[in-house]
Amino acid sequence: MTGGALQGKISVVTGGARGIGAAIAARLSADGATVIIADIDAQAATSQAVLLKNGSAMQIDIGSDASVVKFADFLKNEFGRCNILVNNAAILDMTGINELTMARYRHVLNINQDGAVRLTTALLPLLLADGPGARIVNISSIMGLRGQPNSVPYSMAKGAIANFTRSLAADLGHQGINVNAIAPGFIDTEMAQLPDGSGHEHETKEFLDIYLKYGRILLRRVGQPEDIAGPVSFLCSKDADYITGQVILVDGGVSATF
Ligand SMILES: NC(=O)c1ccc[n+]([C@@H]2O[C@H](COP(=O)([O-])OP(=O)(O)OC[C@H]3O[C@@H](n4cnc5c(N)ncnc54)[C@H](O)[C@@H]3O)[C@@H](O)[C@H]2O)c1
Question: 99-112: per-residue pLDDT in tens?
Fold first, then answer.
């Protein structure tokens, strides 16, 4: 969709400084929205925001109550409303259960799970400020719907985001706010870099064999951030007026077979 379908909409994209969030910010901006890139990396957020037609950047740590309150105050004073909130920011964690400490577990859940709840509740008055019509899109993951080695806190948080989406939709439906989630599959971003610095997860022989050669990804390619940005744009558009409480898998078909 092009040509200003989201004209005049004030949109917040967390983690919009790079990767999937940057593609979502670019797409919403191309759709006509005013986009606030909210990211812990202020410098990268500013660099991305200048590329947008109507963009700005604001630092936020979604893991911090104080930072989220500060962000909500900024948004209230600058814009007085929020029409679209995309809860995208998260960190990867690949700690195996034998090494997992409760401190690490709480750290991951505080950002990847509580961060979306923290920001959504803080922005709720602004999401209601224009009356019915606001949209919330949460970014979950196929890992929130399936198990995988070395992913207990990450997968738990992503599963929680899926059910946060359903329950939040139930709470907000009568106030005219649609809440949905996208669960991406394997997407080509910095998050997919291997922790030992040896390269990209998607370039390993094991990945190439299982997912591309033997076709666990039915479409035989890794996803690009734009593959996620399009469906997010759709969920924010009028065409999605009657869709709420859904977790939409955008994964090239990975979850369709076993
Ligand atoms: N890349 C994938 O294969 C994949 C697959 C499924 C789901 N996802 C999800 O998509 C979303 C985006 O992932 P990505 O691959 O673009 O990741 P990324 O690591 O490339 O980008 C994440 C962004 O979030 C920001 N961020 C991190 N912690 C933050 C915090 N506390 N407060 C504010 N901003 C913070 C980072 O600075 C960065 O700009 C995440 O929710 C991720 O879990 C990614």
Answer: 999 999 999 999 99
How much helix, strand and coil, in percent to the nearest 5, is found in the chain? Answer: 45, 15, 40
Best probe residue, ligand 1, of 191, 232, 250 (max atoms within 8 Å of C-beta): 191
Residues contacting ligand 1 via CB (< 6 Å): 14-15, 17-21, 39-41, 60-63, 88-91, 111, 139, 141, 184, 186-187, 189-192
Nearest CA to ligand 1 atom 30: 61
Best of 12, 20, 138, 182 for a ligand 1 pocket test (most atoms within 8 Å of beta carbon):
20
Residues in the chain, pLDDT under 70:
1-3
Give the architecture (CATH level 2) of 10-189+223-256: 3-Layer(aba) Sandwich (3.40)
pLDDT at 3: 56
Nearest 10 degrees: Cα torsion 1, 133, 227, 5: 20
Active site residues: 154
pLDDT (0 to 100) of residue 106: 98
